[in-house]
Write a structure and sequence with these properties.
With about 200 residues, the chain is mainly β. It contains three helices and 14 strands. The strands form three sheets. The chain has a six-stranded antiparallel beta sheet, with no helix packed on it.
């Protein structure tokens, strides 16, 4: 039952689908394999696992990341409900710098996304009572935590549900990216929309 890897819309990101063995009881699938991840040069040493439950449809969490020396890789999946997952490339030396990528993760599709270091991550719930779980390569470090605002005009992320009622005060307060990180790029190189088919 190998995992099914597809390159994601940002450099170094991967969409991972499960090969399910199903019968009348349900299904069984492998969600992680050190060997398969290692063969692709991906991180295999995850040190912390987190779960977040969100009560209401339309809630946005993020976009979060950690700076060096506590940068982190994330492996994200939805265990209940459905969400629109978004990553933003904040690596100046990346060919997809300042681009964002979004895809649906749900308990029905079983899909996961591998988020490389240097990318901000967030999501919007598409149904009530949604649960997301993720593995991280570095433990949470409050002093290295940073954020990108969900509605930063530089990125112009297209969230599927227009309502902004359920965004925490903390996530509303992140500054514009350009206020903290001066950006010199032509207009066409930023905020490219990349969606998983």
């Amino acid at each position: 039952m190998p995992l099914i890897f597809s390159e994601g819309g940002l450099a170094g990101s991967w969409v991972i689908d499960l090969e399910r063995r199903a019968d009348e009881r349900g299904y069984f699938a492998r969600a992680f394999c050190r060997t398969e991840f290692g063969e692709r040069g991906l991180v295999t040493d995850f040190v912390q696992g987190n779960i977040a439950r969100t009560a209401h449809k339309g809630t946005i969490r993020g976009l979060h990341f950690q700076v060096a020396p506590a940068q982190e890789v994330k492996l994200v999946r939805c265990g209940r409900g459905a969400l629109w997952d978004v990553i933003v490339d904040l690596r100046p030396d990346s060919i997809t710098y300042l681009n964002w990528y979004g895809l649906e993760l749900s308990d029905a599709n079983g899909r996961q996304i591998y988020v490389p270091e240097g990318c901000a991550h967030g999501y919007q719930t598409l149904v009530d009572d949604t649960e997301v779980s993720y593995l991280v390569s570095t433990c949470y470090s409050p002093t290295h935590e940073r954020g990108v605002r969900w509605d930063d005009p530089l990125f112009n992320i297209q969230w599927p549900i227009a309502s902004t009622a359920d965004v925490s005060q903390k996530d509303r307060a992140w500054p514009d990216f350009t206020a903290v990180h001066p950006v010199s790029c032509d207009e066409n190189s930023a905020a490219t929309i990349r969606r998983h088919p």
